Amino acid sequence: MLVIGLTGGIGSGKSTVADALAARGAGVIDTDVLARELAAPGSPAANEIAAAFGSEVIRPDGSLDRDSLRTLVFRDPEARRRLEAILHPRIKRRMLQRLAALDTPYAVLVIPLLFETNQQDLADRVLVVDVPQAVQLERVRRRSGLADTEIAHIVASQIGRAERLARADDIIDNSGDRRALLAQVERLHQRYLGLADKPAG
């Protein structure tokens, strides 16, 4: 099966593109969704996170306080590494299990930190959703309500825009309106269908 690795900076519109590809029949596996599943209240991952970071990152209902955890790990590289050591192997295992079970023309793995975690080799092609940084920051600010310093920490933890674009096989420019975005999605969908029909190699 043709596998597309979909990535992009925070606020670039990865989920919108993934949803549009899913609506056209692609098999989409979103690692952010997997992370939430794996860290559900009472899960082994949630218990490990609580043990590593303390009860302040757990809400009264047992769910993760994602805002507190995000603030902590993006300010402290060592804390971030500890969290990734808990979650990333579990996410990768579940992603590959879901991928093996797909029966779709092609698969899309939505991995925000695709390059940072060296998972690009899992995909046949890398699709980057891109926006100019000023647009990115405004969208994140509007969507999340995070302070500019918090957003800056998150952006700084990801590879630079120029490097991400240089390493892409396909690029969607999401700086325009929804119609322009969906037109690009449709063109790529048709291209991926054509590539998926070709024999391996």
Model description:
- It contains 9 helices and 5 strands; from the N terminus they run βαβααααββαααβα.
- The chain has helices spanning 14-23, 31-38, 44-53, 66-75, 77-101, 133-144, 148-156, 161-166, 178-197; strands at residues 2-7, 27-30, 106-110, 125-130, 170-173.
- Strands 2-3-1-4-5 form a 5-stranded parallel beta sheet, sandwiched between helices.
Sum this structure up briefly:
This protein has 201 residues and is an alpha/beta fold. It has helices at residues 14-23, 31-38, 44-53, 66-75, 77-101, 133-144, 148-156, 161-166, 178-197, and strands spanning 2-7, 27-30, 106-110, 125-130, 170-173.
Q: Describe the biggest sheet?
A: 5 strands, parallel
What portion of the residues fall into strands of 2 or more residues?
5-15%
State the separation between the terminal residues, measured CA to CA.
Answer: 11 Å
Low-confidence stretches: none
Number of helices: 9
Structural class: alpha/beta
Shape descriptor: globular
Number of beta-strand segments: 5
Element string (H = helix, E = strand): EHEHHHHEEHHHEH
**If you average the pLDDT, what whole number results?**
91
What is the gyration radius calculated from CA atoms?
17 Å
The share of residues in helices is 40-55%
Spatially, the strands of the biggest sheet line up as 2-3-1-4-5
Task: Note the main attributes of this structure.
201 residues; single chain; five-stranded parallel β-sheet; 9 helices; alpha/beta; 55% helix
Write the layout of secondary structure elements.
Blueprint: E1 2-7, H1 14-23, E2 27-30, H2 31-38, H3 44-53, H4 66-75, H5 77-101, E3 106-110, E4 125-130, H6 133-144, H7 148-156, H8 161-166, E5 170-173, H9 178-197
Parallel strand pairs: 1-3, 1-4, 2-3, 4-5
